[in-house]
């Protein structure tokens, strides 16, 4: 008898237990190793919450203050742990409030399972109280979704949900369960999903394509790598480092790929994209071979496609076949998981060092340093810069903190200047650019890795989008460090207005509340810094705190983030001022 | 790569699940591509559905669309073909006043020459069914319009390919 048949036999021989659908949901979650979930109760999901009360010693439910917070917390949890984040909500508004986080998880390939309650099946389609077609609404932003109307469907569907969410290119899955299915009793048995015939999570790697890639790389005079989150999701950090160490290829990252190798690695040449570093952007249009690993040529990375790396042969290592040739035409596509593909590639590569070529990156970095970085990190004028705050956090955390950033100028500054010594240290909303992401995501990140220092870097705009999650932080005693860089503006929009809309600051200036009072109202220690001489002590006090801490830094009002590739421009037209 | 718009027939083999039509049509919707016709039926494989979708686009576009379709969890395999690579048909029904059938000899000739089938006849109306290529159905429509058509409907395209599709082998490999 083969292993599969033995497993099947063991499963069939398991005693069946007659339990309710809602208890089955909790038991399925336990079987999938879930010990924490984020959510918000309501009428259509109450039977499940009743069961969670019974199982509270095994599954910790985190009551967020809004369902959007639950999804972002689940994302933060997933991004730092590599496990599936779980969020739960009731029907109607509870379910629709999950959508932003689901869309964010979809575009950033974050494994997440969302469970929503639904009105009883006999009321479906009748515009019943708190009924929405959440399966229809979530279809374009989920990797998979499904509605359950019978308790007996629960084990198989939840098993599928977890399998789909975490396998291949990860993503969010939504399971909608009618209230009658939650009450209904049935004979429960659980078996983990091991495969779906219509779904191939990882395409087979063609060795010929690996050989073709190796040949191009070995013959390249000016090769350049851009890596993305696929390196982290594929657990390929070691293999990736071995490839660049052997070949000496200058390597740049997308914001989703940040932290896969340490910032200080000599071949780490910085960030690409709209606010990325000068050298990797400009030299993308000079390299002869461009090697993309686990990244998807997002328009924020490529700028004007017609003028993007047209001189280069392009090699694309990618798990999702639909990404091949989607934005940039490739010469060699290597399908598969980054870890396995790079393992196959490594022995075929010649040892090399591209010192002259690497020096070009260093020279352009020196140029960028003089023009931009020096003033960002070592300002001489009076106002505090966002960059110097990040520099201070780097010093105090020794580059070991997980940085959770929101969306806007501070995000770009955080990604540019945060030092990452460990993988999975940069948690941000990349593809969707969701303001309000960071505060709840930091809660999830801290709960997934309580041993790590988690620092959320947020702007005054994004902070107020999910500020209510301070309540969750207080209730859960989540020791996150919150740094709000307050410039009393929606800074990134203001920057665009300054540069492209003749300084017409339409609805971007913010009159803010007293953030310190608000934090203290939630019993969170708080401090405001307005002067440079107070910054180091304040950051030090924050980092020394064993509990949650709120630090507001009043930074210059009209500081801009440079370099910048103007929207629709070529990456080589990147501006330094 | 052909950059001219062409008519393509997309064949998608899928699991028979609720909601998949939504997922597939959303792929076209978000790229603002108009679906010329869409048909879903059982396929030659038990329990496997087949979508037949007709669209006009460039080969570059259709390759990307096929990639997005195949990403859907319940899609087993998607193919695209030009008209020359398929054998295809549509079906149409015409409802016409019965008087005309008996009084207009020309209508009788049109029916005969077009190889249309009379589905039913009663005192008030008769129903014609015509299967064939789009231009044949359109010709019949033009000829009958002169006399007055009470109701007309045409199905989406159904098509089979001239070359074999490897779908059965794929499914067999999964089951092993």
UniProtKB/TrEMBL annotation, chain A:
Q: In which pathway does it act?
A: Amino-acid biosynthesis; L-isoleucine biosynthesis; L-isoleucine from 2-oxobutanoate: step 1/4; Amino-acid biosynthesis; L-valine biosynthesis; L-valine from pyruvate: step 1/4
Domain Thiamine pyrophosphate enzyme TPP-binding, first and last residues per copy: 406-553
Which InterPro entries does its entry note? Acetolactate_synth_lsu, AHAS_TPP, DHS-like_NAD/FAD-binding_dom, THDP-binding, Thiamin_PyroP_enz_cen_dom, Thiamin_PyroP_enz_TPP-bd_dom, TPP-bd_CS, TPP_enz
SUPFAM superfamilies, sorted: DHS-like NAD/FAD-binding domain (SSF52467), Thiamin diphosphate-binding fold (THDP-binding) (SSF52518)
The family database entries (Pfam families) matched by this protein are listed as:
TPP_enzyme_C, TPP_enzyme_M, TPP_enzyme_N
Entry GO terms, CC: acetolactate synthase complex
Per the database record, which ranges form the Thiamine pyrophosphate enzyme central domain?
A: 210-344
The UniProt keyword set, sorted, is:
Amino-acid biosynthesis, Branched-chain amino acid biosynthesis, Magnesium, Metal-binding, Thiamine pyrophosphate, Transferase
Required cofactor(s): thiamine diphosphate; Mg(2+)
Q: Does the keyword Metal-binding apply?
A: yes
In its UniProt record, a GO molecular function of this protein is: thiamine pyrophosphate binding
EC identifiers of the protein: 2.2.1.6
Recorded hits in CDD domains, A to Z, give: TPP_AHAS, TPP_PYR_POX_like
NCBIfam families in the record: acolac_lg
The family assignment reads: Belongs to the TPP enzyme family.
The protein's name in its UniProt record: Acetolactate synthase
Q: Which organism is it from?
A: Pontimicrobium sp. SW4
UniProtKB/TrEMBL annotation, chain B:
- What GO molecular functions are on record for this protein? acetolactate synthase activity; acetolactate synthase regulator activity
The record, for InterPro entries, names: Acetalactate_synth_ssu (IPR004789), Acetolactate_synth/TF_NikR_C (IPR027271), Acetolactate_synth_ssu_C (IPR019455), ACT-like_dom_sf (IPR045865), ACT_dom (IPR002912), AHAS_ACT (IPR039557), AHAS_small-like_ACT (IPR054480)
Q: What class of enzyme is it?
A: transferase
Protein name as it appears in the record? Acetolactate synthase small subunit
> Which superkingdom, per the lineage?
Bacteria
Q: Could you tell me what reaction this enzyme catalyses?
A: 2 pyruvate + H(+) = (2S)-2-acetolactate + CO2
Which family is annotated? Belongs to the acetolactate synthase small subunit family.
Q: Name one GO cellular component term.
A: cytosol
Functional summary from the UniProt entry: Catalyzes the conversion of 2 pyruvate molecules into acetolactate in the first common step of the biosynthetic pathway of the branched-amino acids such as leucine, isoleucine, and valine.
Pathway field = Amino-acid biosynthesis; L-isoleucine biosynthesis; L-isoleucine from 2-oxobutanoate: step 1/4; Amino-acid biosynthesis; L-valine biosynthesis; L-valine from pyruvate: step 1/4
Domain ACT span(s) in chain numbering: 9-83
Q: Which Gene3D superfamilies match?
A: 3.30.70.260, ACT-like. Chain A, domain 2
Offer one example of a GO biological process linked to this entry: isoleucine biosynthetic process
Species per Swiss-Prot/TrEMBL record: Pontimicrobium sp. SW4
Task: Write out the entry's keywords from A to Z.
Answer: Amino-acid biosynthesis, Branched-chain amino acid biosynthesis, Transferase
Quote the EC number: 2.2.1.6
